[in-house]
Amino acid sequence: MQFALLLASLPSLALAAATAYAPPPMLLAKANDPNNSCVLPGDYHIRNFVGRSNDTGRTLYAYNFAYLDTSTNSSTTCHYDAATSKSTTPAGMTPRFECRDRDVKFIWVDAMQKLVMIQRVCPGPTGIPAYEVSGSVIIPLLCRGTTTCVSNQTDFQSLFTSIQPIRDAQHRRPTHVVRHNDKRGVAWSYDV
To answer: Closest Cα partner for 156 from 112, 120, 114, 119?
Structure first.
């Protein structure tokens, strides 16, 4: 009996071992269900990171890069400009900025030349994900006396190391979902 239980748990153990984070049991079961489209990604790529700096790379005022997650088939471009980019997080949280795909966000940490990536995963029945995975990668930049800063490599691969419930309240309804604002009255049933 115990051996059968061990064998039955092997697929979920394999998925958990394939990630650097421990997903909640219910989310792990959802990801292991072949009838569900939930995918828990293990890693991602940052490609062609190019920044702009007025102080030889200590701080960036603009940057662009491409994001790729092969396990979820997510590919998007990301852009930041200090003059025009707006954080998607409420006050009190570290500012996050959206990529073209709104399920992918990023945080740049100037002092460490570190890029933190956040991706929403496993949408529920309404199409809105309840969890996000995150991970970070160091991107060493060379500015060489110009305002353009580049790295000596064009592809950085990194692991997602955390999974959490979504913390910012910027849930967005998928474009195919229609919301009706019908006013409904209350029906009372009583004997006369």
So the answer is: 114
